[in-house]
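Page 47, continued from p. 46.
Same chain as before, 217 aa.
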Amino acid sequence: MSSIIKEMERCVFYSTFIPRKIREVFFKYYNRLLFYLAGVDYGKHLDVYTGITLKKYKGAEVMIGDSFCFFSGSSINPISRNIKGCIFVNNNAKLHIGNDVGISSACIWCDESIKIGNHVRIGGDCLILDTDCHSLDYMDRRTIETDRKQTRTKPVVIGDDVMIGARSIIMKGVHIGARAVIGAGSVVSQDIPEDSVAAGNPCKVIRSIDRDESLTN
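Result:
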């Protein structure tokens, strides 16, 4: 009886695992073509798994380094479930992503400039925005054109080896220093220094990271 149950479990596992793997392989190459046709300058081993929303507007510049990995939608990071990732780069904006960057179902909205360094990890369902998205003046918001013109933007910079926890929001004008760790669910509206652990809403530094100690652990 136990052997029958094990065989049934094995069949159920492969009936769900194999189709998902087939989708991942298909979208891996489909998304490389999608990025290429959109005019994205990317390096070796671009791996974007399953569906992603990519919007690159006139004059926008998107540069991605080697070994870029973006899990999205049904490729399933359990934390972000089936949420579809998004990369939105507006007219004449610049999005630069370094080497060996891993992202899970994040939304990157670039209206002016976003720079992400090397070896960065961005957790499930994060938002990275260099814009307020709308004007803060209610009269401006009454017309689309005025709202767009009066929306404030400011560049975002994320340094090398930064780790950003799931469902964090990185607001406009923020500079996160190298090797910093941002706790899950944080709202980062001010600069975070390098080699620090920060969390909360608003995000604040909790402690510094001793680099010599972390290297020996």
